[in-house]
User: Fold this.
Amino acid sequence: MTLPDTPSTPASPGGLALDAEALYLELLRAVRPLMQPDTALVGVWSGGAWLAERLQRDLGRAGDVGVITSRMHRDDFGSRGLGGSADPTRLPFEVDGRPILLVDDVLFTGRTVRAVINELFDFGRPARVMLAVLVARGGRELPVAADASAARVSLPASQRLSLARAADGRFTFALEERR
Assistant:
């Protein structure tokens, strides 16, 4: 499954400049030791899924990555509903007894990770669940930590860091004020 690209906009309001391509290479290096022959990559819709697809290819792994959405298990489901363009979760492999590497672009509060872990367990009981993120930022509200991250940044809660993927597959970051 190939996910749609988003327009690419460099991050720089407030002077923050993150080279998403350089960070991706660091993430690739960091996840190699986490991978076992039966580890399945599962990307969180959408930026995490883009990263997981590219990691799968660059690690030389066969098969498709899984894609998971947090929609059904979010703690703000009542206010957000099913809105958004996320595809439903797709896990083209058995989850039971398998090590899973969840991949996301930005770890912020930990609430999305909590929701996708709940979604993952709806499909079975993995042997182990690990987390790899491109950027871990401050603001954790839940005790969630990444097993691998390419960078740590501190941003005010009013700012949002979003990964974009260009048509050629290259990654960039956009830094926006939250609405």
Observations:
- The helical segments are 20-31, 47-58, 77-80, 111-121.
